[in-house]
């Protein structure tokens, strides 16, 4: 089963994907996390990726497809996948559709002012990548509950990069939805996390049922 989570930054894709994956057994694949891991490795490729991400740009489609292909080829991906952050362009979506059958698309929607406010309160663990925010604050400010790592604000979550990323989302990513009109389940992501999660669980259950 392949489920896509689509929505602007700050809609809660990462948090929703993490929770849904724990509950459903689907493997959470975040292309942002894959890229950040490469960037953290300090490789030449990682340095290039870090510069693109920090500026709020998009990584080249062919490179992205290569990275995703390698991840999908790992054995755990056979359990079914929750894709967070991919596809982000029409060429990526077309290439994905050539390789797999997408079963369901959960579209998280939220107005710009809501996502901008959320992102400015978003903190991530430098060590394990866990995301904290208004709905899910850490027990101690600045410290990760899970691994005691340091929490930081991603450069691409700073105001200029956020504006650029939102503009890119509307221009490059939203058009992919036209490829999945029959599969889309819209969830209003401007509400509290537990209500959003409930709707997402329902969307996933509906999707499993329609899959037979
Ligand atoms: P995310 O954690 O999903 O917000 O991704 C962080 C950054 O990684 C994005 O702003 C892009 O620079 C890059 N990125 C993640 N996924 C993709 C993708 N599918 N295509 C191109 N760039 C991506």
Short description:
With 212 residues, the chain is α/β, with parallel strands linked by helices.
Order of H and E elements: EHEHHHEHEHEEEHEH
Biggest sheet descriptor = 5 strands, parallel
Determine the structural class based on helices, strands and strand pairing.
Answer: alpha/beta
Low-confidence stretches: none
Overall average pLDDT? 93
Provide the β-strand percentage band.
5-15%
Please state the oligomeric state of the protein chains shown. Answer: single chain
Shape: globular
Distance between the termini: 11 Å
Small-molecule binders = adenosine monophosphate
**Order of strands across the biggest sheet?**
2-3-1-4-8
SS field, number of helical segments: 8
| Overall number of strands | 8
Radius of gyration: 16 Å
| Range of helix content | 40-55%
What does it look like?
This protein is an alpha/beta fold and 212 residues long. It has 8 helices and 8 strands. Helix 2 (31-41) packs across helix 3 (44-54) and helix 4 (61-72) packs parallel to helix 5. It is globular. Adenosine monophosphate (AMP) binds next to helix 2 and helix 3.
């Amino acid at each position: 089963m392949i489920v896509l989570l689509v929505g602007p930054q700050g809609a809660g894709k990462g948090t929703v994907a993490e929770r849904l994956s724990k509950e459903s057994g689907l493997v959470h694949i975040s292309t942002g996390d894959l890229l950040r891991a490469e960037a953290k490795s300090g490789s030449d490729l990682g340095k290039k990726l870090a510069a693109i991400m920090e500026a709020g740009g998009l990584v080249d489609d062919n490179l992205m497809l290569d990275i995703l292909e390698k991840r999908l080829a790992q054995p755990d991906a056979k359990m079914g996948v929750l894709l967070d952050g991919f596809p982000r362009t029409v060429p990526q979506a077309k290439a994905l559709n050539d390789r797999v059958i997408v079963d369901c698309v959960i579209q998280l929607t939220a107005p710009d002012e809501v996502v901008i406010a959320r992102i400015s309160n978003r903190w991530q663990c430098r060590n394990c990548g866990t995301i904290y925010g208004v709905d899910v604050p850490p027990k101690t400010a600045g410290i990760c509950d899970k691994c005691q790592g340091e929490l930081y604000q991603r450069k691409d979550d700073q105001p200029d990069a956020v504006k650029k990323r939102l503009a890119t989302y509307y221009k490059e990513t939203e058009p992919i939805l036209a490829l999945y009109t029959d599969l889309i389940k819209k969830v209003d992501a401007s509400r509290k996390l537990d209500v959003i999660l409930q709707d997402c669980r329902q969307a996933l259950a509906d999707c499993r049922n329609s899959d037979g």
